[in-house]
Design goal:
13-stranded antiparallel β-sheet; mainly beta
Amino acid sequence: MKTKWSAAIIVLAAAIICGHAPEAFPSSSRADEILRKIDDMWRGKSSHAKLMMRVKTANYTRSLGMEAWSKGKEKTLVRIISPIKEKGTATLKSGTEIYTYLPKTDRTIRLTSGMMMGSWMGSHFTNDDLVKESRLTDDYETRITFEGRRDGKEMMEFTLIPKPEAAVVWGKIVLLTEIDGENYIPVREDFFDEDGAPVRRMTFSDVKMFGGRKMPAIQRVTPSGKPDEYTELFYEELQFDMPLGDAFFSISELRR
């Protein structure tokens, strides 16, 4: 799930930090290669995860147990397994389409374009986060903007600026990773709007081995200006590259 889903990345050029419109720059082939490696770490050819999502806002706190499957970057199915009152609620992503199944009313809803920036399951993730799971290198010009020791660890920072033709929400993304041997472990990812203002921060922690891959078990997204609010994902199990047919990511499977 990248977001899972969608997974996240950031770094800013000084001009952008100062609030100027971002300027495109040619991608670094080395940055592209490393970012594709990070993307593959999360995605695999397919995946199956069991996880918890905890949401804290000014008005409520909620926890959901979930099971999620993905195939490539186009297909994702997420099913709520707890609490009982939410059990069976499911979300299907197939290409650029998103469907939600509500078992209480036995209704399947296809999300319209006007609903894409709405909250997903009351969290700080949006429905658009589920759709925008293409590789970052497809939509952004990338550059390594820091490489060296920081906080006693070997770090590498990437700044991503949208390509002119890319239909993306973010004006800039900055991703900080820790270099651990041949692994690049995400540490922090900051997202900025088109005016260079920070919108949200994603942090990664509790690095563990999942399916032979070393990766963070906890992701937290915090909206800018609301330090007491957050959404956390806790990965309990995560497997990769199991056989999953296209039929698994269907409306009939969504309603099961």
